[in-house]
Amino acid sequence: MKKVDFSQIKITGGFWRQKQDMVRNVTVNAVYDRFKETGRFDAFKCQKDTPLAPHIFWDSDVAKWIEGVAYLTREKREPQLEAIVDEVVDLIEKNRDTCGYFNSFYLSREQENRFKFRDCHELYCMGHLTEAAVAYYEATGKDKLLRLMCDYADYVERVFKIEGTAGFETPGHEEIELALVRLYECTGEKRYLELSKHFVDKKGCESKELTDWTALTYCQSHKPVREQDTAEGHAVRAVYLYCAMADLALKYNDQSLVVACKRIFESISQKRMYITGGIGSSHEGEAFTVDYDLPNLVAYTESCAALGLSLFAHRMLLLESNAKFAHVVERAMYNGFMSSTSLDGKSFFYTNPLEILPNAITRNTSVTKQTDWLPNPQRSEVFDCSCCPPNIVRYIPSIANMLYTHDDKTVYIHQFMESQAKFSVGEGEIEIEQKTSYPYDGKVEITVRGMDCRVAVRVPEWCDCYKGESNGYMYYPVCKNGTVITLDFKMKPRFVYANTEVLANAGKCAVTYGPLVYCMEGCDNEGHLRNIILDTEGSAEVGFNKELSVPTITLDAYTRKSNGELYSFNKGRLEKTKATLIPYFAFANRGVQEMQVWHLYK
Amino acid sequence: MKKVDFSQIKITGGFWRQKQDMVRNVTVNAVYDRFKETGRFDAFKCQKDTPLAPHIFWDSDVAKWIEGVAYLTREKREPQLEAIVDEVVDLIEKNRDTCGYFNSFYLSREQENRFKFRDCHELYCMGHLTEAAVAYYEATGKDKLLRLMCDYADYVERVFKIEGTAGFETPGHEEIELALVRLYECTGEKRYLELSKHFVDKKGCESKELTDWTALTYCQSHKPVREQDTAEGHAVRAVYLYCAMADLALKYNDQSLVVACKRIFESISQKRMYITGGIGSSHEGEAFTVDYDLPNLVAYTESCAALGLSLFAHRMLLLESNAKFAHVVERAMYNGFMSSTSLDGKSFFYTNPLEILPNAITRNTSVTKQTDWLPNPQRSEVFDCSCCPPNIVRYIPSIANMLYTHDDKTVYIHQFMESQAKFSVGEGEIEIEQKTSYPYDGKVEITVRGMDCRVAVRVPEWCDCYKGESNGYMYYPVCKNGTVITLDFKMKPRFVYANTEVLANAGKCAVTYGPLVYCMEGCDNEGHLRNIILDTEGSAEVGFNKELSVPTITLDAYTRKSNGELYSFNKGRLEKTKATLIPYFAFANRGVQEMQVWHLYK
Fold first, then answer.
1. Is B357 in Cβ contact with A569 (below 8 Å)?
2. What does the domain layout of chain B look like in residue ranges?
3. How far apart are CA A525 and CA A457, in angstroms?
């Protein structure tokens, strides 16, 4: 299977057009402003004494922002943003070491500690700069950064693969592995692919030690990758590694890697993933924990992890055309990823909880500073570890990457977005137009023309009116002169139940509408959300919230009115009420208040 | 109202006889052994260089143990234990400062920091030594420790009340306040009562500051005590203060203190108390938090706090004969206190959770040391801060303190224990014999003789077959020649529901049997406890667990069998099952496993 690059697809309207416009008009600038004022851009000057001390991962923040600018540029040039990028590139060229090494933190602060500590993010930063270099070259034709990063990659190859002179053997934070695959794809230089394979093969076989507070699972070094069967450790690091494993599995036709990727995918999607597609349930190590451990109030579920999961799941579609992978892409991108960003595009969640209890945040009245960990109940414009905002800047403009894969005869339609695409398939060229109001309406009209072939359309996981083949796709023959496929997946509010092993959700249900997970917020409902009991046999009305500009769901429900005593032998009166829900991605746009995804039901 | 000292009552059989025998035969020695080997006894030698560094609160650990020995001695002398006590007393006499000051930590380690830091427990230790001194004198007639503590109290009066030369104005950890009342009662020296009042009156009016990590609520210094209307801060410190407030309210007939005590009691019993009588819901500050914040899995609910609550609640009965106070004594002593001790009497809980999920304890697989706080799922023989074990040693032998109060005409029977009592009432002397298998059976036969008067028998909160007067007591005339009152409160399994403001228990119920709160443990039930749905309309059978020697309750219930998918539109099958529960106090005697007090219900 082959991928279809987003540059061959134009999002022409609907949900993602609105989000892409938001990134272009608001987010890319908002993130720049915050990064500029926190010193992240000036850090590239590599000055010894700056008022704002650089951090070891700042290069990656800016790199992801550059990658985002590059993607925006594919559709419409952005001279002002490009000027900023060019300035950063000039600074890298000016300040890098003659050997090719570049890291603003180590060059300005700790020359002597270069490549000494595994957890210090140098290769992670290098990986993101490499992705940025490839993207910027492909978007603008400007190759300076690409050349700089090739030099850097050559140096990394020497230090880590040829000479083995670094203080560690594989990166503590994966990213370079998948970046080197992109560098290979862009340059055709096979050494880069082999360097990626070197790092991936070495995982779990390192002889050098970890930091003292992390277990080997933390950075996926507990076993050689081909033996790994569960998703472990820091969730973002993990999915970036799994992306590289899937890439290498494809490039090398490495079946043992394919098998490992599939096993890990099952571990995530069947045992360690929130209904939102969020992953990494613990703040300790920002990490996967044990099977079915998915607490709601203290969910970590970093935005970058949901994003990374969608990247991994989509890559799996290149190894096997099975809808289960695309289901996870859909789940993550509309929920656990999209919740990361405020509706105005200016502020961001690092963590994405599935429940908020304001009282829990202020419960410790006897201490001056609460140390119990709880996710932030509101988004922020920038944070110390501000990896998520620029990841959003690069992800949304390239979201159409998720739409299609193909082989010589069949084009797989994995996702549904109002769009026009034109790309080569085998010897021919195909045009695909999608008209849809997805994710708010299940009607999709797909027009295909340009060559005789087949299209395979994914039946969404939540749809119960179509049945695909065993892999979850419906196959349609299409003809050169144009074929129109008109579908209606028929969205409706549905109740979802977790596996009873997920103890956090015992006795509870969630509500979905098409691909969207819904949640309750305090301001739409009377009383405490935890006391609302949904009537799963009652009526469900779809409405619209003008303030948030999203469809709402109003359900029959009950609340219990207790008699005021702290403990009573009396159950209390069950009263009929209505519960109103909004899409999960839209929560926390109206102040700090109660929120929950999992509800009691009757 | 007047109190009836336990020394006038003999527990003749049943639940508390068994527990008192356990303390005498096992616990008092087990605690001694652990304290001896951890250096707590040798610390009284006040040597500069000891292999085990003393801790600032070690004196209080030994003091409470001495108090326990004294209480055991009231019933039967214990020469070996007394010899240990006498040795400690000699060491205090030998090593104390000429001014009367004694603290093994400060005398051996930090002479220069005496009475300098508010949170350093010197007055707390002094208070416990004073209680021990009074108890030991009353039990044995030996007055050496009493004299030493009088000297110490005189010194404290000078430093804190007359000269004001200490580094702080009121203790960071209350205890001395109630101890000084006892010292006054024992010696008749009113200055000690006035010193207690001085400390209590000064609370919340101090000009000197707290430690940097605690709020003023932590040690109840947020307001003058007469203005306090909620239970705040460190729960043990709080209830010890409230005990002293109740004592002083009585001694001084201080109505503003009475009103404050009643307000605080309502705050605890109606908004901040677990169903077990446990208090202090947060490990941060070991403290009360906000109303209705009573999480089960992370419940702190220190053993000493439940014990202290029962002491406070019983004191309230001296201010007003209202059953609501005795209800709380009963709730705490059979549940949140009694759970502190293993059935073999050798190991102890510091914290008493209302739910245990073994998976939650080991969930953080990516770090080498989990920092998320969770209560210990198993009791330990000794801990660094081992305040609870000796508190148990002093509480159980004196449990009969909770039975009666009286005025000149009426004896109030608050609690039910197989026992014989003989004490003065007004001009006469009364004998009361209780025959009962309480808390396992509701039948109580009360024989009263010796004088014509009235007895008032509390109707337990859980009993629905008797109705008392508005204060919750049934009044019976009794005659000199003997009156027999035969009651059957008719215990049966009952479902309890929390106020809907207690969000932790939304959609859940607890099960009680008489005064006992019941819980489920994993080994008695199939599957995860959180998935068991109790049928509140179903049958309930009372059985017996031989291993634990406790009555069990078996209830009709359901479990849901999901289809194996992580998320499904299918609710899963509801299957009939049975749920078996044991008394909460008996949990964690069969290894680490799931436990819960609050259950889903249908």
1. no
2. 38-209, 214-400, 404-488, 493-601
3. 38
Comparing CB atoms, the residue among A363, A371, A564 nearest residue B289 is A363
Set of chain B residues whose Cβ sits within 8 Å of the Cβ of A278? none
Q: How far apart are CA A334 and CA A585, in angstroms?
A: 7
In chain A, whose CA is at the least distance from the CA of B220?
A366
Asked if A537 is an interface residue toward chain B (Cβ–Cβ < 8 A), one would say: no
Question: Which pTM value belongs to this model?
Answer: 0.96
Q: In what order do the strands lie in the sheet containing A443-449?
A: A9-11, A419-425, A428-436, A443-449, A483-488
Chain B partners of A230 at a C-beta cutoff of 8 Å? none
With CA atoms as reference, the chain B residue closest to A290 would be B363
- Contact between B531 and A503 using a beta-carbon 8 Å cutoff: yes
Q: Which strands form B443-449's sheet, in the order they lie side by side?
A: B9-11, B419-425, B428-436, B443-449, B483-488
| H-type alpha helices, A176-298 | 176-187, 190-202, 235-251, 255-271
Q: Does the beta carbon of A280 lie under 8 angstroms from any beta carbon of chain B?
A: no
What is the nearest CA distance from A572 to chain B, expressed in angstroms? 8
Q: Quickly tell me which residue has 């996710």 as its tokens.
A: A375
Nearest CA to A121 among A43, A195, A202, A57? Answer: A57
Select from A236, A224, A218, A353 the least CA-distant residue to A295: A353
Contact A118, A211 (CB under 8 A): yes
Residue B270 near chain A (CB below 8 Å): yes
Query: Exposed e or buried b for every residue in B340-372, given b needs 16+ CB within 10 A?
Result: bbbbebbbbbbbbbbbbbeebeebbbbbeebeb
Interface of A with B in 161-200 (CB under 8 A): none
Residues of A in Cβ contact (< 8 Å) with B533: 507
Q: Are B105 and B46 in contact (CB under 8 A)?
A: no
d(CA B277, CA B332): 4
Specify which residues B600 forms β-bridges with.
Answer: B508, B533
Question: B288 and A366 in contact by Cβ < 8 A?
Answer: yes
Beta-sheet pairing, A410-413 with A453-458: parallel
Per the prediction, chain B carries an average pLDDT of 97
Closest-CA residue of chain A to B564 = A499
The pLDDT tens digits for B413-472 are: 999 999 999 999 999 999 999 999 999 999 999 999 999 999 999 999 999 999 999 999
Partners of residue A506 in chain B, C-beta under 8 Å: 528, 530-531, 600
A9 pLDDT tier (thresholds 50, 70, 90): very high
Summarize the confidence of residues A400-426 as an average pLDDT.
Answer: 97
State the Cα angle at A213 between A61 and B284, rounded to 5°: 95
Separation CA B476–CA B487 (nearest Å): 12
Residues of B catalogued as catalytic: 286, 387
Q: Are B161 and B195 in contact (CB under 8 A)?
A: yes
Q: Which B residues, 250 through 269, put their C-beta within 8 Å of a C-beta on chain A?
A: 269
**A367 → closest Cβ in B215, B498, B568:** B215
Q: State whether A215 and B365 contact (CB < 8 Å).
A: yes
Nearest CA-CA distance, residue A262 and chain B, Å? 16
Give me the count of residues in chain B.
Answer: 602
Burial class (CB in 10 A: 0-12, 13-18, 19+), B123: buried
Cβ proximity of B109 and B158 under 8 Å: no
Per the CB < 8 A criterion, the answer to whether B96 and B148 are in contact is: yes
ipTM of predicted assembly, 2 dp: 0.96
Surface of B (294-333) touching A: CB under 8 A: none
Give the separation between CA B532 and CA B552, rounded to whole angstroms.
17
What pLDDT sits at residue B210? 72
Q: Is residue A125 annotated as part of the catalytic site, yes or no?
A: no
